[in-house]
Amino acid sequence: MTKPSFGLILANRAVVLGAVKASDLVELAVEAERSGIFDAAWAGDSLLAKPRLESVTLLSALAGVTSRLRLAVGCMATFVHRHPVMLAHQWASLDVLSGGRTWLAVCLGGPSEANAAQAAEHQVMSIPSAERVGRLEEGIVILRKLFAEKNVSHHGRFYSFDRVTLEPPPVQQPCPVWIASNPTGLTWKGGASASEAVIERSFRRIARYADGWMTNKLSPGEFRQQWGRIATMAREEGRDPAKLGSALYHNININEDRQKALEETKAFLDTYYTAKFSPSFVEQWTVAGDPKRCAEELRAYFEAGVGHMALRLGSWDQRGQFKRFLTEVAPAVTRR
């Protein structure tokens, strides 16, 4: 079993919904660091599709009140909207301010067909939905150059510039850039979400461009199989798969009545994402039940090779669930 590593997903959308204050998120991150259990604080990212506190701004605030936690975006859905030169400057500055603690997990964001809000997000940023894959791949290439080199020139399909040097550079060299994706997971209605060709391209993208893979809504067995597939592709790309990291973006609800835990998580997620998820979707995305069961389910993921578990507390009682996780679940994960 890999050594358990936990991250706390901060509900930054809950500030817009009026469920928590911005100061609550900061305080929870401080408590997470103080606990010694969590290795990272994660913030979601969206502009119009799922409004929330802007991710880089929130992490900058956390940089000033923490000293050990990695400061992570999972996933940066607006990556394809952000000009990579400006984002590289912002992210490098955050890495300097935090003493080299940033963790960037980028993703494609939703397609315009997902809903009107997602379509509006692409439209207002003048980014056609069909360009997302190309912009993500080109953007990662640009970030890597700007993070590590001087007098960078780039002439690609979407971006073109000459002799750009960003100061200051990131503390981390290389500064990690992960890709978050789950082409094989359930849709909110419970159906398959991607064709085999799309799955192949998604995994190949990780093997070719990313320092690690973040995913969600997978069982331990599914994760093991897919991670093995990515490792094979990494070797084909001339990369060492042992140097790639992995993480799961998951929910947890601790309750002796597992059904009530899942129902509460569904109500939380439906409100959080302005959606109506199927029960099977929520169950696949949630560790739920009494502390012993939660610990066993988490242990199964680490035994399957997951390197890091980013956990969102699937309840509006964030502090209550936070306390139960620290005192009743986390200590039991490594205890037989």
Strands of the biggest beta sheet: in what spatial order? Answer: 1-2-3-4-7-8-9-11
Q: What order do the helices and strands follow?
A: EHHEHEHEHHEEEHEHEHHEHEH
Helix/strand structural class: alpha/beta
> What is the residue-mean pLDDT, rounded to a whole number?
95
Number of strands: 11
Strand content: 15-25%
Low-confidence stretches: 186-192
Largest sheet: 8 strands, parallel, barrel
Number of helical elements? 12
Shape: globular
Quaternary class: single chain
Distance between the termini: 12 Å
Percentage of residues in helical conformation: 40-55%
Global Rg:
19 Å
3D structure, described in words:
The two termini are about 10 Å apart. About 45% of the residues lie in helices and about 20% in strands. The chain is globular. The protein is α/β, with parallel strands linked by helices. The strands form 2 sheets. It has an 8-stranded parallel barrel, surrounded by 8 helices. The protein has helices at about 15, 20-35, 55-65, 85-95, 115-125, 130-150, 195-210, 220-235, 260-270, 280-285, 290-305, 320-335, and strands at about 5-10, 40-45, 70-75, 100-105, 150-155, 160-165, 175-180, 210-215, 245-255, 285-290, 310-315. Helix 3 (about 55-65) packs parallel to helix 4 (about 85-95) and helix 4 (about 85-95) packs across helix 6.
Give me some keywords for this one:
eight-stranded parallel β-barrel, alpha/beta, 336 residues, two-stranded antiparallel ribbon
